[in-house]
Design a protein that fits this description.
alpha/beta, 14 strands, binds zinc ion
Length: 317
């Protein structure tokens, strides 16, 4: 089926690294996109230009497969759909935040406010994050016709098909797409840094355990050793096993460090522990750091290593 896969990196001013959009097509099949980049006029014109370099036109896009709901991955879906009529697919657990972006944005901002209080984040930082989130409202638009997909589903795109793998953790509706030996992994599996877990979705709970389970799910794929990984950020690579083992180890060590920090008898919030782990965090990183520590505390609490002393403070068990 001689499919061509083109990687298009779309920069964005809000998060560290550019987001990858992958365009898949061949002579018999119109282009299908994996993710879209952030929803700004600049990224739309960049995408238009890059696609034309590969002989593809924006208006010919047949389908858009979203790995998850974050605006740097899904932000352009509505604009692209308006121009091409493309079908947009997203896992059912991330569907509402994509399909009803505007009305959910307000609700999710409220959930972040509550989450940050749980994590012990100081009020002035809560305010700053609130302002930042208000700006995020401009970076996407609702896609009411988005179609819900689920684990194990097969999507036909022209003369080829992709298998949907639900990989909750980074977000509840995070999905990877398997196309032969190519795995489009979104933010679930990244080559150089570990995607945040805990702070990047506050609509459900227990993200760390889900994330670790979702990594095991990839390890259990029959062709895992020969898989080529096409990540949401950074460069593709082959054989995800060493990288997954490293991420699993990273989280084991992080959990040990948290237990060690609490071992001297202090009672601390997730934010205070994050400061001890990462030093002084700024802006959005406070949210990411504290959220991830809290995700660990949830697991450590369920395993009996730590206990909750007050609603937001933890101590060694
Ligand atoms: Zn993400
Ligand atoms: Zn991302």
């Amino acid at each position: 089926m001689d499919l061509e896969v083109h990687q298009i990196a779309i920069p964005n001013p809000y998060f560290e690294s550019p987001t990858n959009v992958f365009c898949i097509h061949n002579a018999h099949s119109p282009p299908v996109l994996i993710d879209t980049g952030i929803g700004t006029p600049e990224s739309l014109s960049l995408l238009r230009h890059e696609l034309s370099q590969h002989g593809c036109s924006l208006k010919d896009i047949a389908a858009i497969l979203l790995t998850h709901k974050h605006v740097d991955h899904s932000g352009l879906a509505r604009a692209l759909q308006e121009e091409s009529g493309a079908a947009v697919y997203v896992h059912s657990d991330d569907w509402a935040d994509v399909a009803c972006f505007e009305e959910r944005h307000e609700k999710v901002s409220q959930l972040y406010l509550e989450a940050m209080r749980r994590w012990g984040v100081p009020e002035e930082i809560i305010l700053a994050v609130g302002n930042l989130r208000a700006r995020f409202a401009q970076l996407s638009r609702s896609v009411p016709t988005a179609q819900k997909i689920s684990d194990g589903q097969i999507l036909r795109c022209g003369d080829w098909e992709v298998y949907v793998l639900h990989t909750p953790g980074h977000t509840q509706g995070s999905a990877c797409f398997l196309l032969g030996e190519k795995l489009f992994s979104g933010d679930h599996l990244l080559p150089t840094y570990t995607a945040n877990v805990g702070a990047t979705d506050v609509t459900t709970k227990g993200h760390l355990e889900k994330f670790l389970g979702s990594l095991q799910k990839i390890l259990a794929l029959p062709n895992v050793a020969s898989l080529e990984i096409y990540p949401g950020h950074g460069q593709p690579w082959t054989d995800p096993r060493p990288r997954i083992k490293k991420i699993l180890k990273h989280h084991r060590e992080r959990a040990e460090r948290i237990v060690q920090i609490l071992s001297d008898g202090q009672t601390l919030t997730a934010f205070e522990i994050a400061q001890k782990l990462f030093g002084r965090l700024k802006d959005y990183h406070v949210l990411l750091g504290a959220g991830e520590v809290y995700a660990h505390l949830e697991v450590l609490e369920s395993q009996g290593y730590v206990r909750r002393v007050e609603s937001y403070r933890f101590a060694i068990a």
